[in-house]
Automatic annotation (TrEMBL):
GO molecular function (one): histone H3K9 acetyltransferase activity
Gene: KAT2B
CDD domains in the cross-refs: Bromo_gcn5_like (cd05509), NAT_SF (cd04301)
Lineage: Eukaryota, Metazoa, Chordata, Craniata, Vertebrata
Protein name according to UniProt: histone acetyltransferase
PROSITE patterns given in the database record: BROMODOMAIN_1 (PS00633), BROMODOMAIN_2 (PS50014), GNAT (PS51186)
Origin species: Xiphophorus couchianus (Monterrey platyfish)
Amino acid sequence: MPKEYITRLVFDPKHKTLSLIKDGRVIGGICFRMFPSQGFTEIVFCAVTSNEQVKGYGTHLMNHLKEYHIKHKILNFLTYADEYAIGYFKKQGFSKDIKVPKAKYVGYIKDYEGATLMGCELNPSIPYTEFSVIIKKQKEIIKKLIERKQAQIRKVYPGLSCFKDGVRQIPIESIPGIRTLLRTARKELKDPDQLYSTLKTILQHVKNHQNAWPFMEPVKKTEAPGYYQVIRFPMDLKTMSERLKSRYYTTRKLFMADMQRIFTNCREYNAPESEYYKCANILEKFFYTKIKEAGLIEK
């Protein structure tokens, strides 16, 4: 982009610029224009200096821009991307499926010939600037779970010696322990209709319980101030019913994880002496009783 073009936009009072500074010098930035009355922001350009590219700085900038707009209650981005920028914007959640009604942006943003109009709808419940930290924590948790599971393994199979004799390839099923693992996996997926029926019955029992009333539908912002700032991954029985109907729960573990999230979220947001907290504890015990009765976990 010509320096004159960048300078004119950066110093135009109608535009704002988010800059990325490293070691006292600017290495990147996003120039944008907000249209609060129309409910969107136009990203005019996004650039990172050539010797600092492919280091995650572009994503870092975009995530901070998303957080800034969520705070200002503007949840839609529009931009015209040339053929070299389409890949970057796709990685940032942009697509050619524009959610903003055409009447909202026509006449407000310039149509660039040869460029592709792309849009991005922001989700206020997503902590965009915390992605890297969340992923790191997830990896740590998964690693610990694997280590814990490995520690529980009682049977240790000997290593393969056939490769020392010149064998280059063997069927995966012939590896000691794999056949047992595959048999276990097939058993869980053997009859998806039976699993669906079992989970449906359990979910109905939970919904009919007298202490299920706080968890029947998504928490309303008006009834629980700041809930979605505290609880990043909400869950409720209505959402679980919809997921069950769409056959999302292909394993018992997915089903149990969502149910457990309901109870965990409740205890995280509410005080231990609250009625909601007590309901979560009672319903959790009831749920696991039903899970055991159905034979989905050991008694």
